[in-house]
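Can anyone check this?
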Amino acid sequence: MGIDVTATLEEVEIGAAGQTEIIQNVKTILSTIKGTVPLDREFGVTGEYVDKPQPVAQALYAADVVTEVEKQEPRVKVTHVFWRPSPVAAMDGKLEPVVRIKIIGDV
């Protein structure tokens, strides 16, 4: 069974634990562009996919997400990256990625 996570970061729960903490961590990784966090410029995902053709952007994003999420949140395994169909977002050149994760071990 997988958990679908998007880059939409709602309220941050201070002191979150267990599955809530892990999902919140993954959302934070997905919503942060690498190079924007002072003192930790390697945190987040790259923005190199911006302004690329859609198939190229999807491939670059998916590869980067798998690498970065598993490196920065070792309690999860990324099992799938897919895109939520959205004609309105597509017309604006936006992708709506969904990352399916599996939590490793006991939480």
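Reply from J.R.: I decoded it. The CA atoms of residues 91 and 106 lie 42 Å apart.
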